[in-house]
Design a protein that fits this description.
The protein has eight helices and five strands. With 198 residues, it is an alpha+beta fold. It folds into two domains: 114 residues, Alpha-Beta Plaits (2-Layer Sandwich), CATH 3.30.70.270; 37 residues. β2 and β3 form a beta hairpin.
Length: 198
């Protein structure tokens, strides 16, 4: 059974506050095969087999700009351990390689595994990260409201700005591009996990 293991560690943890509890709380609603949990120090780990779970986790972590993100695809020992940190197998080894590479890699994010398709997913995530990195506070405000299902007109009323201003913020924030990126990340992850795209 192929799964994805996420191994994430905090950047600059020695000079800043411990952000792991906040991150775990923020991501607790994302369905995973084994929930995210602290493994040691400033690191946490989780296991997923649903490709739709990957985009919200990665987007939230990229938004915080505080993490080295490693994603490893591969098999795990069966039966699957009760907790993420107790598991073993190729996916865990790939995730460890990925998070180590993320410390010096583009956007502090790497994808590792034996499938050549890992490169396409990693490239897509880097391009998406570049879009998110240019998003301003105002852009995130609009993006969050649109993600909640509000129209541009409704978002404008909520923010006290015109629909035209919302459209300008949305374009600068890459909201349409982000929608497509989420879809593509899910599709590529589904291929790697051997799942039907949703």
């Amino acid at each position: 059974m192929t799964v994805a293991v996420l191994t994430v560690d905090q950047r600059h943890s020695r000079s800043g506050p411990d952000r792991v509890p906040e991150a775990l709380a923020d991501l607790s609603s994302v369905p995973l095969l084994r929930p995210l949990e602290r493994t040691a120090g400033d690191e946490f780990q989780g296991v997923l087999d649903d490709p739709a779970s990957l985009p919200p986790i990665v987007e939230a972590l990229l938004r915080q700009d505080a993490w080295n993100i490693g994603i490893g695809f591969g098999d795990v020992e069966r039966p699957l351990a009760d907790t993420a940190r107790a598991g073993r197998g190729a996916a865990y080894l790939h995730a460890r390689d990925a998070v180590t590479g993320a410390k010096t890699g583009p956007w502090h994010l790497r994808v590792a595994g034996d499938d050549p398709g890992n490169r396409a997913l990693e490239t897509t995530l880097w391009l998406w990260a570049a879009v998110l990195a240019r998003r301003t506070k105002g852009g995130w405000e609009v993006a969050d409201l649109v993600d909640q299902g509000l129209s541009y007109e409704e978002a404008g009323r909520s923010l006290g700005i015109s629909q035209s201003a919302v459209s300008q913020r949305a374009q600068a924030a890459g909201i349409v591009e982000t929608r497509r990126a989420r879809e593509l990340v899910s599709l590529l992850a589904a291929n790697l996990l051997g799942k039907e795209p949703t």
